[in-house]
Amino acid sequence: MQDVATNSSINHIKVIMDPSKKKQYLADSPPSVVPLQIKPHFEALGKTEQLYSHYISKACFAGTRVVLRQVSPESEPLYDFIISLHKHCNGDYSKLKSKTGLNDEEMNQWLHYAAQFLGNAGNYKSFGDSKFIPRLAPEKIAALGKVSDASKHYEMCKDALYETKVEDLMHLGYPPQHLTTYYPESPEITKEEIAAIADFVKENGNILPENTRLKKLSSGDFELLIASAQTNPAKSDRDVSESSWTLDVEPVKGKKISLVYGDHAKEMEKIASFLAEAKKHSANEYQSDMHSEYVKSFKTGSMTAHVQSQRHWIKDKGPDVESNIGFIETYRDPHGIRGEWEGFVSMVNKERTKAFAHLVAEAPKNIKKLPWPAEFEKTFVAPDFTALEVLTFAGSGIPAGINIPNYDSVRQDPDGGFKNVSLSNVLSAKAPNEKVPFIKDEDMEVYKKYADAAFEVQVGLHELLGHGCGKILQETEPGKFNFDHKNPPISPITQKPVTSYYKPGETWGSVFGGMGPSYEECRAECVAMALCPDYSILQIFGFGNGQEDLHGEAGNVLYAAYLSMARAGVAALQFYNVDAKKWGQAHMQARHAILKVFLSEPEFCKLEYTKDDLSDLTIKLDRTKIATHGRPAVEKFLQKLQVYKATADLKAGKELYEGITSVDEWFATKVRPAVLAAAPPRKVFVQANTSIDGDKVVLKEYSATPEGLIQSYADRDYI
């Protein structure tokens, strides 16, 4: 539990935080609650596909408690507190007001906090990794905590609801300075110990870390906790036959590390059970084989089985129902190797998918337009690229697009590859009257009209070509290389042969570590910015006729894309911790880097303001100089990102990326406060549920309100 002080009479913390600082941690009031609309797409499915979707949806949400445990120690009891209060009053909060003495404003503050909590699957923002705290006074929550059904849960989380003694603990990151639960009950574990054990895991090639947590014991020994339903899987089902080792490198030399199976055992058993049911309704052998491997992985903890599931998944081309599930993205582990639980199931939007199919067909030609020689590019294997309407996305947040699997062993394999998906109903979900700060009045009409279209172009290019391009130079096994080792490629940066590459057992993620996820997102975003000025590409998305038309529809989409990226780079400062000098969100750090690239060409882009507090800050971007200044600047930066990644040059990559994303005093003390003052609430999504009634699968949607969001979770009684 976090280090908090308590008042013995009402058991809430008494921490004095500067009010101006505390303001940035207060829960959104109100949060932006939007519906994830799915009904017509779900009802268009046949009965078999509906049953298939139903069981996968339940498997996804059955991992909710895993996500909660991955966020903070208090998140799981806080979830139970929210749900038990809702069930106690049966969703009638007027009754709860009468019982607890809260007034209308106070009850609304509770509902707003609860909705934001559920929308983030924890009390730290999924986008930004900073804690948010109730606006409701502690004594009022204490009154809610006296409700009989909820009191035991309140007692378990009451001391961690508000601000911590040390502000650094309001942010996720490496212990002991910041909070993390990827290293549970390990207050003394150090960054150096985490790194040393990560290196050990990397060298023992059959142990993949995505489904693990690491625990340091009081003896100084370590346990690697593996998510599995079984606490003692058969040796034949394990990825390694050994169960413990003595470490031989500092600072863990002489210490023992043991594999401990059964982390999240109850949840893994439920998930495996639901997926076994989904398998019965598979449309083809690829889906059936995929679910067999999923079940094995979640029962036994085998990540080898999960890798195999992804090989089957990428062969399942163009299904009517698309899904994926597991410990996928590593953004929130401070070391960047352990995955957060997520799962989704969705229906394919066939009309929108046609444009993506054209983009895939043109990909080899368009990849050649990127700023590096052919030796730095892999053979493009055409992936599935689909527009999806999401029924369920379980995890801490919902992205706009996905490019998976993340396993290099699958992505780099000519018989493997990846899939791209764009989440259409996530992209189109809107809250009424959303604020749009930092855009000039003269640009607002174009921005509002074309920003959604520009974002769809950006997501498509980012996911397919951004994450899908670029070779890593590798010694695949001792003495075998995927490039001409005797005549290595010439670096376009130094004009000399490259001297570094990935050694056997090394991966992009293991070499670049915690910086890797943001660096890769930046590379993918730069690919989108480098290619979207190509009018033939804009035509693929339905804009223009392929000819340059700077002030026509295609030109407006292009301008909106660059404006959106610049605006995101400014807004990114909301996710920067000034005191810790730490970014809290991988994508936003990436977008701030691109803003800096834009600003490096002052004739093209600048920030303008007249007021001392920068409350009228706007972006001045010259659309006539995108081709001559903006795009070339992006391409120069992108070339470095790719070459350093390709050659495992962590030193140069770190200098480049940490250098451009460092935040100087003006950005930290002038721009960031203006960003915080203008920041709109981030969207939280209300998702539907499915149930079986006789021989039918019934879809239930909910109102886009805090109460509707809470009810949707309360109805998932299997969590």
From TrEMBL:
Source organism of this protein record: Aureobasidium pullulans
Positions contributing to Zn(2+) binding: 462, 467, 521
Reactions accelerated catalytically: Release of an N-terminal dipeptide from a peptide comprising four or more residues, with broad specificity. Also acts on dipeptidyl 2-naphthylamides
An MF annotation (GO) of this entry: aminopeptidase activity
Cofactor mode of binding and number, as noted: Binds 1 zinc ion per subunit.
Annotated protein name in UniProt: Dipeptidyl peptidase 3
Needed cofactors: Zn(2+)
Pfam short name (any one): Peptidase_M49
Any one biological process term the GO annotation gives: proteolysis
Keywords attached to this entry: Aminopeptidase, Cytoplasm, Hydrolase, Metal-binding, Metalloprotease, Protease, Zinc
Classification via Gene3D superfamilies: 3.30.540.30
Listed GO CC annotations: cytoplasm
Keyword Hydrolase set for record: yes
Subcellular location: Cytoplasm
